[in-house]
Amino acid sequence: MALGGSGGGGSGFLSRARAASGGLLLALLAGLLSGGPAQARLHHLSLKDDLRQKVHLNTFGFFQDGFMRVTINNLSIKSVGESDKNIQVGFSIDRTQNDGFSTNLNEEVDYCILNQKPSREVLVIILLLDFSEKLVKVKFENKTPQLPEITFSESQATGPPGIADKSEPKQSLKDNTTEVQVLAERTHPIQSGNNSFSFQFSINSKEQEGLYSLYFHKCILGNVRTEQVPFSLDISITEQNPNSYLSAGEIPLPKLYISMAVFFFVAGVVWIHTLRKLRADVFKIHWLMASLPFTKSLSLVFHAIDYHYISTQGYPIEGWAVVYYITHLLKGALLFITIALIGTGWAFIKHILSDKDKKIFMIVIPLQVLANVAYIIIESTEEGTTEYGLWKEIFFLVDLLCCGAILFPVVWLIRHLQEASATDGKAAINLAKLKLFRHYYVMIVCYIYFTRIIAILIKIAVPFQWKWLYKLLDEMATLVFFVLTGYKFRPASDNPYLQLSQEDDSFDMESVVTTSGVMEGMKKVKKTTVSTWNLW
C-alpha cells in the first residue's frame, strides 16, 4: 500500500525513505540474528579482559520450589605483582521484593559490597574468593529464614566427595554474645587449574520467595587502578520456577499476549468492516490505519509463542524469535509513521507533505529503525555483557526522541490553525479544527505517558510476582489509543474532521482538499454562483 497521496511529493519521499530504511533494517536484522537468539533463561556468559568493578549477571523472581544453579569456569585475574593482596573478588546474591530497590545498587562508587556484613536488614549472601588458599568463603546471616542455603556441587571440589557437607560453618565471635544476629561463614575449595566451582540454592519456603539478583564484584584496595586488573570469566546460570523457566513476574505473559492479540484482531476486523461499509468516505490513510491492529496482533501472537518455548525449555526457537522480531519492527515503524501522517493532516486535508513534515519523517523513520535494532540487541544479549547496558540506554533515549518528534506536526498544525482563526474569515471552522487536533495531541501525550512512564513506575513498584501488570497497562493503553484514533478519524459523512476538511484553507504549502476518498485528486474551483469539481 502506498503511503503517499496521488502524484504528490509525500508519496515519493515516503517510498524512498521506506525503501532505504527497510534495506538497512533487514541488513541489521540479518547480522544480529546470524548468531542465533540468546540462551534466555539458560544463560551462558563469557567475559574476556573485562575492566568493570561490578557486573550485574542476572535478576530472576523465584516462587517456592524454584532453584538457581551457577557454574563458574576459567575465572582469572590479571594483576601486577604485589597488588594481589589489594584485590577482592567474589559474588553477591541479594533478595528484594521488587525492582525498585537492590542492596547493591544504592551504594557509593568506591564501596565494596564484599566487605559488608550480611544482616536481617540487608538480605544478601556473599561468596568471597580466596585464590591464595583456593577457597570460596560464603558469608551469610545464620538466623535469617528469608534467605536460601547455598550448596556446592561436589564434582567441582578438589577434596574427596562430601567435603562440603563435612565442613562446619565457622561461626563468628558473636556466637557467644547475647546479640541475636549471628554471622556465619562456610568454605568450599576451588578446583585447581581453571579456578572452577559450582553452587546452587533452592527456594524451600514462602518466606524465601522474592527477586534475586546475582552480581560479580572486583574490589580494588589501595592505589591500584582498575585498568591494571582485568578479569576473565566463563559462567553458566540455570534458573527455574516450578513448571516454568520464566521469572515469577513473566509466567502470565504468554496468556496475556494471546488475549491481547485477540482484542487487537477484533478491533482490526471491526475497522475493516467500517471501511467496506463506507467506501465512499474512505481515504488511503484509513487502509494504512487498518494494517496497524493486524500487525500488532501478529506481533503479540509470535511474542506469546516465543515466551511459551522459553517457559517450557529455557530458550526460544530461533525461527519463532526471528518472526517475532520482524513483526515487532514492522509494527513499531508503522505505528509512528501513521501517527505522524495523521498529525500532518495528510490525505484528509492535503495530499502532499510540506518540507517541515518531510524533515520529521527523515528523523522519525531512522530513529525507529535504530530503536527497534537496539531492542533486538537487548533481547538477544546476555545482561552481563558490556554492550547490554549501552544498548539499553540507546533504546531508552531514541524511543523518547521518537515520541517527541511525532508531536511536532500536530503542534505546527495547531499553531497554524490558531493564526488562521485570527486572520481569515473562517474563524469558527478553524477553531473547530483546532479543538480536534488539540484532542489528538492530548491523546498522543497520554499514550506516551502511560506506556513510557506509568508502565515503568508500575514495573519498579509492584511486587516481583506482579511485574506482568506493566505489560498489561502497556498493551491496554495501546489498544485504547488505537480505538480512540479510529473513532476520531472514522470514515463517515458526519465525522467533524471530514466535514471540516472540505473547506478551502491555505497552508504553508499548496494543498488539495477532498470531500471523500472517491474524489481524491480533485480540487474545488470557486465561481460566482456555483462550485464545481475539476479533475487534475
From TrEMBL:
Keywords: Membrane, Signal, Transmembrane, Transmembrane helix. Pfam families: GOST_TM. GO terms for molecular function: clathrin heavy chain binding. One of its GO terms (biological process) is clathrin-dependent endocytosis. The chain crosses the membrane at residues 256-275, 287-310, 322-348, 360-378, 394-414, 440-462. It is found in: Membrane. Residues 252-496 form the GOST seven transmembrane domain. The keyword Signal applies. One of its GO terms (cellular component) is Golgi apparatus. Residues 151-171 are annotated as: Disordered. It is a multi-pass membrane protein. This is Protein GPR107-like. It comes from Crotalus adamanteus (Eastern diamondback rattlesnake).
